[in-house]
Each structure stands twice: as C-alpha cells, then as structure tokens.
Design goal:
Layout: E1 6-8, E2 15-17, H1 18-23, H2 39-46, E3 53-55, H3 70-81, E4 87-94, E5 97-104, H4 115-131, E6 135-141, H5 149-168, E7 173-182, H6 183-186, E8 195-198, E9 204-205, H7 209-216, H8 227-232, E10 238-239, H9 245-262
Helix pairs in contact: 4-5
Length: 263
C-alpha cells in the first residue's frame, strides 16, 4: 500500500504527491498554476549545488508593540516552516558566478516585511555593495507587517535607500516578482530592479484588484495586475517560467560580467 499523501492543486484540484510536486517545481502539470515555493527550495533551484552560504540565519524579529498573539504566531510559524523569518538571504554562485541573493517566503505570514526582514534585505544589499557582487531578490509578500506598525513601514525607506546607494555605485540588481508581490514591498525595493523579471500569473501591485474595484466602483480588466498585464504595460521586463529561471539569471549575469570587463 502506498503511503504517499496527495496535495490538491489550489487552482484545479488535481492531486499530486509530494514527489510529484517537487519534480514539477510546484507547478501544476494539469493546469499550469504556480504553487508557493519555499525559500530554501528556491535557493536550491537557482544556485549551484553546495554553493549556498546562508546569511543572518539567526536574525529574527520580536514584538515591539506587544501586539496580541503576535509572539505566539511567530513561534508557531518558525516551528512549522523551519524559518526564523519570512526572508532568507545567502551568498552563492550561479554557473560559478558569485551573487548575493534573497528570497521571501509567502508561507511565513505571507512574506510580510517587518523589522527583521527589512534588516536582512538591507544587509544583503550592503554586502553586495561591499563585495561588488550582483544582487538578486525574489519577492513574494503581502506587504508591510501590521503587527509591527510604523516600524515595518520604516523598512520601506531603509531598503530603498540601500538599493539606491548600491545602484549609484554601479551595482546590478535583478528583482524577481513572484505571487503575490504587493503592499509596502512592491512600493519599495521590489520595484527598483535594474532588471525586473516575474513568474507567470503572479499578482503584482500595491493593492489587490478587489479593493480597487470597491474603491472606484468599476470593473477592472481581466488579468489586471497579473504578470502578463504588468509586462504589457512596461512594469515587468520579462516573464520567466520557473523551469527557465536559473538559465535566465545565468545569461543576465554573463552579460553583466562582459559589460563590466569591457569597461
């Protein structure tokens, strides 16, 4: 008797085993819907084998406003996901080219950005700046973390300022937008890439379409704020299937290396 457990696709309901989901990179083979990819799964997908060196692994947030139930929620998610926070940053290589990389994990409070996430992202940007390395950030977030109030909103300024300094000094920043990338994250560092890539079908925007429709009292176009809509309107440079992401990043890094070496 098989002991496999099957998880249905969130879009079409097709049941797949854990092994099948891994094989298909968590993209449903029946309907093509993208499922969330854990931070370490993402890093292992794009980085060379055994090249990952996690940064600030023990950096995590506290409860600055004593928000009811927040500390318990953080502890529960840390146990469930094995993460200390909703972002993981690392040093690594892609086809032997060194990079600083960060990944936001939507399984942890919807990838929301609080003090610790803002600090992790800022430190990653500063390390890329210090070592003159390309920076790649995979974004997936519901926005700023309401449980940390104004402290979370301050991370928008901090991360954006670090990116601006890095780019002013000639650093390459590739932003990869995955589902969903919204709120204070899209309004800060996620939208500042020199090159902006996206996964198919990702929701990308400050506020979700339902809120906008309720506010303006109008029906929005089909596919509004999805990756395809955003590329058509110039916000995204290219939509890259998950299976092609590593090769695409490697190509961009090689082009960047050629440009730097020829100067």
């Amino acid at each position: 008797m098989s002991t496999d457990t099957f998880t249905p696709c969130s879009a079409c309901g097709a049941p797949l085993s854990a092994a099948q989901w891994r094989h298909h990179l968590r993209v449903c083979p029946s309907c093509g819907a993208y499922q969330p990819l854990g931070a370490h799964e993402r890093l292992d997908l794009v980085l060379d084998e055994n090249s990952k060196v996690e940064l600030d692994k023990d950096l995590f947030g506290n409860d600055p406003l004593s928000f009811a139930g927040y500390s318990a929620k953080l502890a529960s998610l840390q146990e469930k996901t094995g993460l200390t926070e909703s972002a993981v940053t690392a040093l690594g290589t892609i086809e032997h080219m060194p990079v600083v990389i960060g990944v936001m994990d939507s399984r942890f409070l919807m990838g929301s950005m609080g003090i610790a996430v803002g600090e992790k992202i800022t430190r990653a940007v500063e390390l890329a700046h210090e070592r003159h390395l390309p920076l790649i950030l995979f974004c997936a977030s519901g926005g700023a973390r309401m449980q940390e109030g104004i402290y979370s909103l301050m991370q928008m300024v901090k991360t954006s300022a670090a990116v601006a300094d890095f780019q002013a000094d000639g650093g390459l920043y590739i932003s990869v937008l995955t589902h969903p990338t919204t709120g204070g994250v899209i309004a800060s560092f996620a939208s500042l890439g020199d090159i902006t890539l996206a996964e198919p079908g990702a929701l990308i925007g400050f506020t979700g379409p339902r809120v906008i429709e309720q506010t303006i009292g109008q029906r929005l176009p089909d596919g509004f704020q999805r990756s395809e809509f955003q590329m058509e309107h110039g916000f995204v440079d290219q939509i890259i299937p998950r299976s092609d992401m590593r090769a695409t990043l490697a190509k961009l890094l090689r082009l960047h290396e050629c440009g730097v070496s020829s100067e």
